[in-house]
Specification:
Elements lengths: L2 E2 L2 E2 L25 H16 L6 E2 L20 H5 L4 H4 L9 H4 L4 H4 L3 E4 L3 E4 L11
Antiparallel strand pairs: 1-2, 1-3, 4-5
Length: 136
């Protein structure tokens, strides 16, 4: 995990060796840094007590993949199983929808698009953090 709410994990120099992940399962949030993991859990607990939800940012690294996996000619690729974008071929650095990464540090009460209703408009949202193209 790279970020939960306002808590960020430190960056690591590249390349990040596979051995660095040996103890990642010991973290309840699967963060490589023990101090950041502890801070993330504390932040989750504090926000839960405040009846808030949280967002975050995670990073996926894949090791030992064969060349061509995720290729445009490979219809049964790992990227197609997980994502509609050929992630393994394009070197995607991040994908954000709506306000995306800007919302990762916000509590749910500031990030969600609340639904309202009126006789004139029916159901509607006053915000569009999700980036819904159908929003008026």
């Amino acid at each position: 995990m790279r970020q939960i709410g306002a808590v960020h994990a430190p960056s690591y120099p590249e390349p990040l060796e596979l051995e660095r992940f040996a103890d990642v399962d010991a973290s309840p949030v699967r963060c490589l840094d023990a101090e950041a993991s502890r801070a993330m859990v504390e932040h989750i607990d504090a926000q839960r007590k405040a009846n808030e939800s949280l967002g975050g940012v995670f990073e996926v690294r894949a090791y030992g993949l064969v060349p061509g996996l995720g290729s445009h000619v490979s219809w049964r690729s790992a990227s197609m199983a997980c994502w509609p974008v050929p992630v393994l071929d394009t070197g995607v650095k991040g994908v954000g929808l709506g306000d995306g990464f800007a919302l990762a540090g916000q509590p749910g009460s500031l990030a969600h698009d609340e639904i309202f209703h009126s006789e004139q408009r029916g159901f509607y949202r006053e915000t569009n953090h999700a980036g819904d193209s159908r929003a008026a």
